[in-house]
Amino acid sequence: MKQVLITKASGEQEYFSGQKLEKSLRNAGADEDVIERISTKIADWIVPGVTTKKIYSEAFKLLRRERTASSAKYKLKQAIMELGPTGYPFEQFIGQIFERKGYTIEVGVVVDGNCVTHEMDVIATDQHTQHLMECKYSTDQGKQVSVQVPLYVRSRVDDIIRKREKDKHYQSLSFSGWVVTNTRFSSDSLSYGRCAGLNLLAWDYPAGKGLKDLVDEMKIYPLTVLHHLSKQDLKGLFKQDIVTCSQLLNNTDAINSLGIKDQKKALLMKELGAVCD
Q: 11-34, pLDDT tens digit by residue?
């Protein structure tokens, strides 16, 4: 495959990797023959300086012609960007991931610290551990979380931990602080987070265990991957705290609340079944 410099969301340039493209298509569930056809077409189409966003859009367009379920999963990164404009659906989405992992979750709750009260975006608790999470959502793919965020979160989490360590209700638990983003961390925020003992979760961080890897592992996809939901439909479902395909699939009342016609409902159910399979 020809060596072509492309432009990342951050503005940096790197050589186009056919292997990365093929891996992303494979993760979406595309068949090998489909992957080969799309990779060949992209290799012929690509030009120096083209952005990763445009490459993704072209690959998605080609994949959508092949298979609906795969194309839905392939647009995952963009779909998470479309969970806005507020950060609350993203917080719900992170909560759903940890609930699938076996935790009891609370989203958008105000809790007492040793000194002041704090609003925590997500609290995930099992028998032994409680994770206190700050979620930083952005619609800008190139945005990085600055070092001020983990600095701020570390102090807030420590204040909550000091309070809860005195409470008999929490005596059996250990605590950990998290910063979660759908974009990336700056190098300083990564250095501080690691040094300060915070868990950092971004789109592709930690390597092999980032947000995209968790989504693939848990098979939990945001509603925004679906082609048969309008923005108004999504808005109504978000108000019901329904943010994932698996939540919607077996929720007859939520589907009926959309007021969509039978033909569109049938297409939606077919797409939901394929994505959640």
A: 889 999 988 889 888 877 788 888
Three-class secondary structure of residue 51 per DSSP? strand
Residue 157 token pair: 């989490």
CATH of domain 222-276: 1.10.150
**pTM summary value:** 0.79
Length of the chain: 277
Average confidence (pLDDT) over 138-150: 91
Beta bridge pairs of residue 111: 118
| Pick from 2-11, 129-138, 163-172, 230-239: least confident | 2-11
Single out the residue of 223, 216, 218 nearest to residue 244, CA to CA: 223
CA–CA gap between residue 271 and residue 5 (Å, rounded): 36
How far CA 247 is from CA of 110, 179, 223, 250, in Å, comes to: 25, 25, 9, 7
Task: Return the closest-CA partner of residue 132 out of 112, 147, 153.
Answer: 153
Q: CB–CB of 167/212 below 8 Å? A: no
Scanning 117-177, the segments in alpha helix (DSSP H) are 148-164
Nearest to 59 by CA among 128, 6, 117: 6
- CATH tag for 88-218 (out of 3.20.20.140, 3.30.200.20, 3.40.1350.10, 3.30.420.40): 3.40.1350.10
